[in-house]
Amino acid sequence: MRIKSEDGTKEMRAVWFEDGIVKLIDQRQLPANFEIFEAKTTEEVAYAIKEMVVRGAPAIGITAAYGMAQASLQGRNVDEAFEILRNTRPTAHDLFYALRSMMDAINSGEDPVKKAEEYANDIIGRCEKIGEYGEKLIKDGYRILTHCNAGALAVGDWGTATAPIRKAHRNGKKIFVWVDETRPRLQGARLTAWEMVQEGIEHAIIADNAAGYFMRKGEIDMVIVGADRITSNGDVANKIGTYEKAVVAKENGIPFYVAAPISTFDFSLENGDQIPIEERREEEVLFCRECRIAPQESHARNPAFDVTPAKYITGIITEKGVFKPEEIWKLKS
Ligand SMILES: CSC[C@@H](O)[C@@H](O)C(=O)COP(=O)(O)O
């Protein structure tokens, strides 16, 4: 269930650690080019996270875990590495969860490389479980909408929102996936569509503002998205545009599911208003790839995430089962 290399001969994860180097499929380049980015220092790992060479909450966490292992292997001050990596992207909870796990392990004398590898395997294993629980919600013939990329590239393997989709497809259910293009970085059109092609899953890319049209026409049976942070009351931060999909889904009586491992849950926050929302460079909106699409005089705003209130969410698919937002307190350890 890994990602296939460009020539289809090798299977790989979105991120791995080899010879002291953090290696990443450069997600900025897909699907046009398949290139591996090599991060040899903490600063380069931080750059890869910040500039979205790697993106998606669980994959960001795994990259940070390898970054900590690398820093420790290089004899670098791990507190300093922790700070550098912590200040890359503010919304995805997995980043902080991974950094804390690594610091605890390092402080208690565990082998950091082994720990980072265990961390990656654990998160990917959790996502496979999400696939098993989520698959049961998908009926034969379902047409499923997803937003952004919550696939293998966003985790390392399997994905969160795409794990149930992949399992359903593998189990022989006939499914169809509506892929939101996901402006401004086009994670849907570039990355989710690329993964659907790799898996041979029937799909169509739609403009971000087209989902409501298809919902009203009765052409969407369910929505599954990933999450960057989930708070105690079941509010969910995810890629900008998720909120409006959830509201329109509820209006049309379409079930709206969020898929995420427990590493994405932040029980220290009561509700979604407390989640720090990353605001990225205006150029991401003013340009489409290298081409400026807006007048030279215009400015833009670019929040990378929004918060979907719990009341719009039918269920949260985790490695421990499917929970209503008001039930997630049961997952608090
Ligand atoms: C399994 S990934 C879940 C989320 O991280 C994903 O839906 C998302 O919003 C990614 O945002 P990105 O800005 O591409 O890192």
Automatic annotation (TrEMBL):
One of its GO terms (biological process) is L-methionine salvage from methylthioadenosine. Keywords: Amino-acid biosynthesis, Initiation factor, Isomerase, Methionine biosynthesis, Protein biosynthesis. It is an enzyme of class 5 (isomerase). The record marks C148 as: Transition state stabilizer. Belongs to the EIF-2B alpha/beta/delta subunits family. MtnA subfamily. Its EC number is 5.3.1.23. Catalyzes the interconversion of methylthioribose-1-phosphate (MTR-1-P) into methylthioribulose-1-phosphate (MTRu-1-P). This is Putative methylthioribose-1-phosphate isomerase. Substrate binds at R55, G56, A57, R89, Q187, N238, K239. SUPFAM superfamilies: NagB/RpiA/CoA transferase-like. It catalyses: 5-(methylsulfanyl)-alpha-D-ribose 1-phosphate = 5-(methylsulfanyl)-D-ribulose 1-phosphate. NCBIfam families: eIF-2B_rel, PRK05720.1, salvage_mtnA. HAMAP family: Salvage_MtnA. The active site is at D228. The keyword Isomerase applies. One of its GO terms (molecular function) is translation initiation factor activity.
